[in-house]
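Subject: two folds for Thursday's group meeting

Dear M.,

Sorry for the delay on this. The cluster queue was jammed most of the week, so I only got both jobs back this morning. I'm pasting them in the order they finished. Each block is the input sequence followed by the predicted structure tokens. Could you check whether the formatting survives your parser before we put anything on slides? The first protein is the one we discussed after the seminar.
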Amino acid sequence: MPPEDIHAPVRAPASDAPPRNEHSHGRRLGSWQEHHGWSAASSLRRLASRPLGSLLTIAVMGLALALPLAFYLLLGNVQKLGEALGQSQAISVFMQPGQNAQQAQMLARQLGDRAEVAAVTVKTPQQGMDELAKMQGFSGALQTLDDNPLPYVLQLQPKAETSAAAIEQLVADVRDMHSVELVQDSGSWRQRLDALLGVGNRVVLILASLLALAALLVVGNTVRVDIASRSEEISVLLLVGASSAFVRRPYLYAGIWYGLFSGILAALLAVLIEFALAGPVAQLSRAYDGKLQVGGLPLWLLLAVPLAAAALGWLGARLVSAWQLRRLG
């Protein structure tokens, strides 16, 4: 048998025989460990012996695994963008005309005592007039007014953990107050954004599942071709007493190597995408006065991807090798 063969020396099958005493049990355990190490190294050398085919397989799997990471990154930043654009936008309460500053402060204290409200800001009619004067086209029209027709406006900032139902109830209660003329709330916009993000999360989950299945099939097909090309050698090993676990062990390690390297490639591609978006995102953040804080993928996820891909590669190799060995046996 060639020295670079994927299977261990002929004496290794004896490691799967039942032990007769403690000494034989120790030898069996040592041989089992030796064969695991030999299988891992031999399968890695076999991948290196055909670099083009191995690189293509790893590249296909890496791209498949990088896609859901990219969509997850995009979805998380869309959520942050929604927050910057006003996902938690304050509720504007317009008081009835003729209400004075004392009544506005009294209503502000009353609303500030509610559990759903984090802060209340009172905007005077003069402040509203100054804001209109800064807008193009309003300055000339405002000069013709004899008095200020704008009412007091209260800006309610709901607490971050407040549910959508609680905010809706808050808006309904404020509208029923006799001193309130109008309430403007972005709750419907927040609900649409939350629903859109929920759909996006489900799409990312489905996409990740489909692409993980595709990566599993790629590994399985690669292992199937490898086993088919060595069917005669495997048949000889089975005839001389090698167990199925002994024969398929190198192929399982091959699946692990494929998955591990493709997972590392997927994580690197995700990091490259983050770097590619860093410049435009920084410019967008400056346009919103630094309110837009875009984040990257968490470190735990980047570290978990290679491990999950290795497990996926092992599973694909395990399923295909078991099916192929049953045919050969």
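Second protein, same layout:
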Amino acid sequence: MCQKQYTPHLWRHTRAMHLYQHGMDLTLISQWLGHASLETTLVYAHADTEAKRKAIEKAMGSGTGAPEDSSSYTIDDEDLLKQLYGL
């Protein structure tokens, strides 16, 4: 049986994710965590977006008419991503 390791970093990361998921602005979370750069904090927004995407895919299943290739939905404009993450 595999035992989970619960570290202070895991608790910190979990709390930051909860704050973000409940609407706290990413810049405030960044300041609260003491990150020198907002880029460091963007991992929380990306993780949350990815989790939502996977949940939608799982709920929709196959045969939904959605394209298999999701590359048409990829946004690589960093300025736009920062604006969207702050919503």
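Two things I noticed about the second structure. Residues 8-52+77-87 form one domain. The chain is about 60% helix and 0% strand.

Cheers,
T.
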